[in-house]
Amino acid sequence: MGRGNVYVDGSDTDTRTGSAVITARAAATFEPVGRSVASARAFVRDTLQGWGHTDIIDDAVVLTSELVTNAVVHAGTTADVLCLRSEDAVRIEVADRYPEREIPLQQSLRTLGSPDREGGRGLQLCAALASRWGVEYTPTHKQVWFRLDLPERPVGTRTAGPALPVELLPVADPRVHVAVVQLDSAGAITAWSDDAESLFGYEAQKVLGRPLTDFAAWPHTPGTGTGIAEALQLSRWEGSYGIRGSDGRVIPVYASHLRVRDSEGDPSTVCLLVRDQERAVLQTPHRGPAPDAASLPETANTADPFDSFIGSPAPDDLDGLLQRTVERARDMLDGDAAFLLLATDDETELEVRASTGLPSARQRFARVPVEAGTGRYGSARMPAVHEDLTVVPGAAPLLNGTGMRSVVTVPLKVEGRLTGSLGVAAEAPGRYTNEEALRLQFAADRIALNVESARLGELERLRRGSLSFLVEASDLLAGTLDRDQTLALMAQMTVPTLATWCAVYTIADQSSEPYLSYVLHEDEDRIDGLKALLQRIDPPDPVPTPGARVWNAPSEAAHRAALRTSMRSLGLGEPTRLAAGIGTTLATASAVGGETVVLPLVARNRVIGMLTLGKPSEEHFRQEILELAEDLSRRAALALDNARLYSERMAISQSLQRSLLPPGLPQIPGVEVEVIYRAAGEGNEVGGDFYDLFPIRDGAYGFAIGDVCGTGPEAAAVTGLARHALRLLAREGFGGPAVLERLNAAILDEGARSRFLTLLYGELWPQEDGSAVLKLVCAGHPLPLRLRQDGTVEPFAEPQPLLGVMDDLELYEQTMTLEPGDVLLCVTDGVTERREGTRMLGDDGLMDVLTTCTGLTAGAVASRVMRAVERFATDAPSDDMAILAMRVPEPHTD
Fold this sequence. Notes:
Layout: E1 6-9, E2 22-30, H1 35-51, H2 57-74, E3 79-86, E4 89-96, H3 109-112, H4 121-129, E5 132-137, E6 142-149, E7 179-183, E8 189-192, H5 194-200, H6 204-207, H7 228-233, E9 236-244, E10 250-261, E11 267-275, H8 318-332, E12 337-343, E13 349-356, E14 367-369, E15 384-386, E16 406-414, E17 417-426, H9 434-478, H10 483-494, E18 501-506, E19 515-521, H11 527-535, E20 549-550, H12 553-572, H13 576-591, E21 596-603, E22 606-614, H14 623-658, E23 672-678, E24 689-697, E25 700-708, H15 712-731, H16 736-748, E26 757-766, E27 772-779, E28 785-787, E29 793-795, E30 799-800, E31 814-818, E32 823-827, H17 829-832, E33 835-836, E34 839-840, H18 842-851, H19 858-872, E35 881-887
Parallel strand pairs: 27-30
Antiparallel strand pairs: 1-2, 2-3, 3-4, 4-6, 5-6, 7-8, 7-11, 9-10, 10-11, 12-13, 12-17, 13-14, 15-16, 16-17, 18-19, 18-22, 20-21, 21-22, 23-35, 24-25, 25-26, 26-27, 27-31, 28-29, 28-32, 32-35, 33-34
Helix pairs in contact: 1-2, 2-4, 8-9, 9-14, 10-14, 12-13, 15-16
Protein name: PAS domain S-box-containing protein
Keywords: Hydrolase
InterPro entries: Bact_Sigma-Reg (IPR052016), GAF (IPR003018), GAF-like_dom_sf (IPR029016), HATPase_C_sf (IPR036890), HATPase_dom (IPR003594), PAS (IPR000014), PAS-like_dom_sf (IPR035965), PPM-type-like_dom_sf (IPR036457)
C-alpha cells in the first residue's frame, strides 16, 4: 500500500518531459505486496481524474499496472510512482530498488511483441501506447517512465471529435430527452427535470424524496460488481443501467454521475440520463488510435487497441469488464451491436451477460444453446461469420427479430474449455469477413482469462452470499410453526432478492387442486392486480420433478388482457375510468412480462405446493439464482409441511382439550359466578387444571375445581375422567363423599396411567332469604376462602386426603352458609405457587389480595386476583391457573 500521497502545484522547469513548466505533481510509494498493484492503479486514476485528464486514464492505468507489477512482484522491492503534469503532456515514472541494468531490449523487441511471452509486456505496452518512454538507472534505483501527450483541443473544450458525414452520425429519436436528476447524500431524489418526467413517465411530486434505487433496474444479485448505491458515491461515474418507467417497463439508459457539494459542504449527486441508444450525447469519447508504427522503433509491434482497457474496471467487477468488452468490440469492428455470452458449467448453454445496441427484449441472463445447428457455423465453439442471417434463419438465436443481418462470433476459451462467446453484428449484410473474425478472435483470446477469472470470483462471492442467505432463511423458517407466517416468509425472502414477484400455491391433499395462497410484488401497488390476474388463469401443474421450469401462462394472460383493454378503449373513446383501468392492466402486463418459473414444493415425497417466481419486462433469471431458489424451495417446503402438521395436530389437540372444559356456565338464581382459566404453555387451552359448574337437580348445583398431577395427554385423560364422572355420579344422587370415593376408585383402576388428583367438590343450594347453603369436600386441594362483608378472610373448609393414592378413603362433607355480600374464592395451586425468584405468593398473599375486594362483584373479584397474580412476577406462568369466584349479592333496597 502507498505510504502517502503528496500533491504539489507550482512552476518548475522539466527537462525530462520536454515542457517548460510542471504545473502539478503527485507521488506515492507502494510496498512489495500483491495488493499494491491495485492501489497504484487507483492512485494514478484518482490523480489524473483530479487533473481532468480522463481521456488518458485508461492508457496510464494499464501502463502503471504493468510497471508496478514488475517492481513489487517480479523485482520484489518497493515501487515509487511519480506523476508529473505539464501543459501538453503527463509523465509517469515508476522506480524500484533493484539496480539490475539488464532489460528485455537485449532480447530484441521482436520477442517482446509476442503475445505468448510471459514477461516484458510492460515495455511492449509502453512502446504501443506512450508517445515517449525510457529506462533510467542510478546506483540504487531503476526507473521506467512514459509520457502521454494530452489531446489538442481549443481552450475551454474538454473533448472534441472530427467533423463526420451525416450518415455516420449516431441515430437518436426526433426528440432527445436529457433527464437531469439530483440526489442528496442519502441517494434520495431532490430534483426531477421535465425531460425526466417525459422519459420515464413519473411526475416530479411522485418521485421527490424517494431513493433512486427504487426506480433503478440494476442487477440486484449477489456477486455482481459495483451496485447503483456504490456508483452514486463515486466522484464520477459513467455507464449503462435501466430505469423502471411508470408503466413497469425497464428503459435502458446511459448515465453520467457527478458528485458535488454545495456552499455548506453537503454532498449531492447530479445524474444526466439519456436512452441507451443515444449514449453519444453523454459518453466520454474513447482515446485516439495508438501511435503509428512508424513513430516506434523498427522492431516494435503495436499492441492491439483492445488490450488497453483490460485493466480499467476493478479486478472483481465482472459486469463492468463485460460491458466494456462489448462496447470496445463493437467500436473495433464498427458494428451496430455487440454481445457477450458466458457458458454454463456443463457447456450446453450460453447466458447473455452483456450487450450493446440490441433491443430491450434481449435482456441479461437469456439463454441460447451452444449447438444452435449442424455444421461448423452452428456451434459457438468455433469462429463464425454470417454474411446474411436472412439466408440462414436461426443461425444466431440471440439476434432473431433484431434487424441485424451480418454477424461475426468467436469463442472465449481457457485451456481448451469453452467459457463464452463474443459477437459483433451489423444491420447491413456482408459487413464481416474472416479477417474481422481473426481480429475479434485475437481480442477474445486476450480477454478470455480475465473474464474467466472475474467470473470465478463472482461465482465464489455468489456462493458465499448464497450460503449466508440460506442460513438466514433456514433460521427464519425454523422460527415459526404458523402456516400463514411461513407463507409470508417464503415470499418475503424471495422478493426482491431473487425475483420481482412471487406467488405461492398450496395443495391440501393429493385429490385437491392447487390453491393460490400468497402473492407478493416488490411494488405493493401491484399486488392486487397481480393476484387478480393469477386467479383468472389455471395454476401450474404440480409436477414433482426437481428444478425450475418456465411457466408462460401469466405473461400470456397479461398480454391478452392488455390487448383486449386497449381494443375496448379505442371503441369507447377512453373515458376516465376506463383509461385508469387500462393503465392498471398495462402495468400488470409489464409486471409479469418477463420470465416466470415454477419450483415444486416437495416434502416427505409429496408435492404440497408450488413456488412461482417472476421477472418483469422480458427479464430472465440467471442460473445461479434459480439454483439458489431451488435450495430455498426445499427448505421452505419442509417448513411449510411442518407448519401444516403442527396446525393439524394443534387443531386436534385443542378440539379434544376443549371437550375437557364445560361448554358454558349455568345461571344460578341469587348467586354470581365467574371463572377465569389460564393454561400454561403456548397454544394450550387446557392442562392439568380443570373446573366445572353444573345443575344436579332442581334447585341444586354442583361445582368442582381440581388439579391433576403432571401434564400432557395422561393428565388430560384423568381430567376428562374426573369431570364426566363427577357429573354422572352427582346426578345419580350420590352425596359428595360418595362421589369422590367412587372417582378415587376409577382413577386407581387406570393402573399405570393413573394420576393423583386434588379436588374441591361442592354442592350449592340458593335459599329464599338470599343466602346460599354449601356442602364441601376438599380432597388435598388448596382451601377455599370466604370474604365477609366486613373484609375478614378465612378458610371455608378443612383439608382431607387427595385422590388417586389410597384405596380406602374416609371422606366427609362440611355444610356452611354464604350470607348476602359474602364471596367464596376457589383457586388451583398455580395461583398460590406463583413465584418471583425465592418469593412465593402463597396462601397469605392470596388472602391479602382478597381483603381488598370487599363490595366487588364476583367478576371483579376474579379479575383483581388474576391481575395480582400476573403482576407478582415478570416471567410467564409455568403452571395452569383456575379461579372460581361465587358471590351471594346483597338484597336490593329501594
